[in-house]
Amino acid sequence: MQGRLRRHLRAVGALALSTLLAACAEPEPVLQKVAKPQARPAVAPPPAPVVAQPTSQKSAMLRSYLHQVEKAQLGQDLLRQDGGGEDTPFTSEMLARNFEQIALYNEYDGDFSGQGGASPLRRWESPVRMQIIFGDSVPPSQRRSDTAKINAFVRRLARVTGHSVSVSDRPNFMVIVASEDDRVDALAQAAEKVAGVSKSSLRAMRNMRRDTYCAVAAYAAGDNPNVYTAAVAVIRSENPELLRLSCIHEELAQGLGLANDSPAARPSIFNDDDEFALLTRHDELLLKMLYDTRLRPGMTAEQVNPITRIIARELTDGPV
């Protein structure tokens, strides 16, 4: 526009031209940055707090009974937590004999109702992946405490055995902590999560006797009937703290292949006298023996015994 005006108005003075330009020029728009309203990112609502469901009178009575049991045992100097000492020496020969009784016999028959018989050596070959299921009635404080204790014991089992044992969201070994009120539902969840475990196979655990504080069932669903591929442990949440921890130690260790108890085993949790509450040094050596590479699942007592005597001597170097 300014070029055309210069060509047609050459005779007009500079002042007139500037006036005309000022009159004809359109004002430039003033551009302003206008902030657009921004959508707020979606914020997930906080998870609902875990609130324990009220327990039934049956569960409350069982809790009272189990607290009385623990109190009575502690009053008799049972449920020791020291792992043994000078009063509980054992030799390599004793260790080997205890291994035979505990690893090569069943504690119960299939429905937990009677004594089991001799069995080949059984253990896991694949990694053991544990997961915890809590019943709805277990309060948050107990869940936190039990989770920490189970996780710590899982790490100990891995260290002692040299086998892969861990906590995982792809479980093949379920650890259930539940009450009389919610054990059945928790068992149903376990059957859905672990291949090779059916609801019918857990029937005995749905109807546990009052004096059964905890239990474990291990399964061999692969080609070798002596290689475990799945397990489910049940621990009564009504147990007081020490009894509950004792159950964690015994059932998780038994689920690895130490399936029996022996009255001769000392110092050991694999003894029904309840002298010891927690896994002892003696028991750690049994687990080391079980997962020694010189042993194989399916071996009989006749095949195992000469080898375990050698291993026991290596581990103890005489009395300990």
Structure write-up:
The protein has a five-stranded mixed beta sheet with strand order 3-2-4-7-5. It has a two-stranded parallel sheet with strand order 1-6. Helices cover about 40% and strands about 10% of the residues. The protein is built from ten helices and seven strands. Strand 2, helix 5 (about 140-160) and strand 3 (about 165) form a beta-alpha-beta unit. Helix 5 (about 140-160) packs parallel to helix 8. With about 325 residues, it is of the alpha/beta class. The termini are far apart.
The fraction of residues assigned to DSSP E strands is: 5-15%
Element pattern in H and E: HHHHEEHEEHHEEEHHH
Low-confidence stretches: 1-36
Task: Work out the number of β strands.
Answer: 7
The strands making up the biggest β-sheet line up spatially as: 3-2-4-7-5
User: Helical percent range?
Assistant: 25-40%
Describe the main β-sheet briefly.
5 strands, mixed
What is the general shape?
A: globular
Structural class: alpha/beta
C-alpha-based Rg, rounded: 35 Å
Task: Determine the mean pLDDT.
Answer: 86
Number of helix segments? 10
Q: What separation lies between the terminal Cα atoms?
A: 108 Å
